[in-house]
Each structure stands twice: as structure tokens, then as C-alpha cells.
Amino acid sequence: MTGAATHLITNIGQLVTNDPTGPGDGSPLGIVTDAAVLVNDGRIAWVGRASDAPAADDATSVDGAAMIPGFVDSHSHIVFGGDRAAEFEARMSGTPYSAGGIRSTVGATRAASDAVLIERAAALVAEMRAQGTTTVEIKSGYGLTVDDERRLLMVAGELTDEVTFLGAHVVASEFENNAEGYVDLVVGDMLDACAPLARWIDVFCETGAFTPEQSRRILTAGASMGLGIRMHASQLGEGPGVRLAVELGAASVDHCTYLTDDDVAALAGSNTVATLLPGVEFSTRHPYPNARRLLDAGATVAIASDCNPGSSFTSSMPFCIAVAVRDMRMTPAEALWSATAGGAAALRRDDIGRITVGGRADLVELAAPSYLHLAYRPGVPLVRRVWKDGIL
Ligand code: NIG
Ligand code: FE
């Protein structure tokens, strides 16, 4: 945009709005062909057929390309020091993934300056943006002291509004034989210092991380400080985490790789989103979650990158969509919805993840005639231009 009051994006061959009740085809993706979108002051002011478009102060043609809502990546851990390429290499030769790898990133993160942390996280946000992500949630969790967790949240807050306190990522090594002492710290001084810097609280509820009892204590303490609840659960095996997330009214429970029938039923009967993280199974060689089972039961499913140096060092939502379609039994339409509107639901946002009047003008132009190409052409850089709040 050039600062004009109204701006028309036009000659859109295929527009995915995610608005089934809007001017589109009535499907969940709300597809409008030969479309245009009017942007005013960072918001969508009008959506419809290009031939019906209102007058605007200026216009951009996308020459028949497909456009989609910006991706909403509702799960990332991008504030960290070091990397774990050697751990990945070992994994590809048969060493299993374990939650303990997180501690090596904690050491590198504590050793990194604020300036290095912000520079590296900002570079990852830019990498995400270039691949179509216009909203990203960012967690702490590689500090595990009061000062380091606060530092990571301050960096995250420079880059997004969707900041999550994950002091309960693993038990800090200083508390190796005193997990309850670490939980006391998390719900005490750490939460006091961190809650004002975050919107959400998260816990890794898994064998090797936190028990359901510890997770409940941490999440309810966070909620009492005004934080919304999210959770990591059932990544490495079945467990009670998913049902606990539903019971506590979590906005989202993430991973959901190993689900029981009761977990699926609980998710389907709730407004807790099941967020699937295809990059994790890809990068850990774990079996993929069965998205079909969740969708057929009626659960709301999101897809996110989980960008982090251990289990999933991808920043690419198109990659995640391609894997979800190929290996998690999602249709291309379901995968795109989950990576946009699904992510918005996981963040309890209704102003993003769809292209509707009044919503944010977060839009992606694809170098393709159809959104199908996101899964059909895996690994190909199909994101041509990205508008965030109406600005290119
Ligand atoms: O979401 N599961 C816990 N946390 C991250 C992994 C972080 C790491 O391995 O460093 C995840 O996969
Ligand atoms: Fe994670």
C-alpha cells in the first residue's frame, strides 16, 4: 500500500476467504472466483467479485493468482540460542527423540545475549513471513530461571502479541531431583514475573516433563493470573493430558500424536482445538497423528509449525500443509483451513485467519492458480507477496 485511504487488490483468480456465509461458494473455504478485496486502514472493507468492486484510491492486480488468508502459526519456540543439528543427524541414524534434548538448548539460550536472541528470533519471524505467516505465537521455555524466562518473553513480545509463558517446558537441571521445588518456583516467583508479559500459559504434560498433577497446578495458577491455557500433550505416548486440557478449558492442546478414543471424544465435545504439528513427526520419525479421526469425530483441528531447534526446525506452514495432506489424511481444503482459521481458533481470535469485512487485511498471494498447489507442489516457494495489516 502506498498510504492511500482505500486500496483494491484485484484480478484474484481464486480467493479463499474461510467464510462459508460470505460471497463465495458456500464451502468451508468460502471460495470466490475472479475476486477482489478492498483494504482500508489495515482492515478488509469489502470482498466480492472483481466486476462488482467499489471504487478505490489505488489498486494492485495479482493477474489471476490465488489468494489465501495469511497463515496463523499458533505454536512456535523461536527464542533460543544454538542449534541441534547434530542431534537431528543422530536421530536420522536411529537415536530416538527425548524431551531431555530441550536442556541443551536451555544452556545455549542462557549463554546468549538479549541482542543475539532478538536478532535470531526476528530472522525466523521474517523467514515465516516470507512463507506466508502473518501471525505467530511465540513461547518462552528455554530459560527456566525467573530472569531468563522473563528475558525470553520480552524478546517474544517485541515480535508478536501472542506470547506464551512456558516455564514448565522441562524441569530445570538445577532441580533435577526436586521437580516439586521447580513447580513451586514456576507457580511462584516465575509466574509473578512472567504473567504480565504473556497472554497464555503452557505446560509440557508428558513422561519426562510434567505430570498431570503438576500440569494442573501450573495451569490453574496461570489462569488465576489472567492467562489463557494451552498445553503440550500426547506427543510421545498416550496420557491424561488431552482430557486435562479439555477439562481446564484450554484454547488448544498441541501435538495430539497418540490419542485414545476418549481423548478424541473429549476434544470433539469441547471448544479446545487439537493442534497438530506435522514437522515434529517428520523430524523425529514418529508416526503421524491421524487427523481424519479427529475431523470425522467433529473436533476442530489446527496445524502449526512448532518451529524449534529440537523436534521441528521448520518455519514453513506450506511444508506443514503438504505433510498433513500426504501423511495425516487431511484434504488440501482441510489442511489450508487448519493452517489459517484453525490457528486463529487455537488463539481464540476472530480477526485473523479469514478474509471477511472488518477482519485484518492479512493476505497471501500465491504463485499458483489454486490453493491446491500448496500440497500438490511440496517444497516449492509458492508465496509471492504477503500483506500484513494491509501493508506489503
Ligand atoms: O513442542 N514438546 C516439547 N517442546 C517442543 C520441543 C522442544 C525441543 O525439543 O527443544 C515441542 O516439540
Ligand atoms: Fe512445542
From the structure above, extract its key features.
392 residues; alpha/beta; Urease, subunit C, domain 1; seven-stranded parallel beta sheet; 14 helices; globular; binds N-(iminomethyl)-L-glutamic acid; binds fe (iii) ion
Q: Short description, anyone?
A:
By secondary structure, the chain is an alpha/beta fold. The chain has helices at residues 85-92, 102-111, 114-130, 146-159, 179-194, 212-224, 241-247, 261-268, 278-284, 291-297, 317-327, 332-339, 341-346, 373-376; strands at 6-16, 31-40, 43-49, 58-61, 66-69, 71-73, 133-136, 138-139, 163-168, 200-205, 228-233, 252-255, 273-276, 301-303, 363-366, 383-387. It is globular, with a radius of gyration of 21 Å.
What is the CATH class designation of the largest domain?
Answer: Alpha Beta
List unreliable stretches of 5+ residues.
none
Q: How would you classify the helix and strand content by structural class?
A: alpha/beta
Residues in β-strands, percent: 15-25%
Order of helices and strands: EEEEEEHHHEEHEHEHEHEHEHHEHHHEHE
Q: Count the helices. How many?
A: 14
How many structural domains does the protein architecture include? Answer: 2
Number of strands: 16
Q: Measured on Cα atoms, how large is the radius of gyration? A: 21 Å
How far is the first residue's CA from the last residue's CA?
6 Å
Sheet with most strands = 7 strands, mixed
Portion of residues within helices: 25-40%
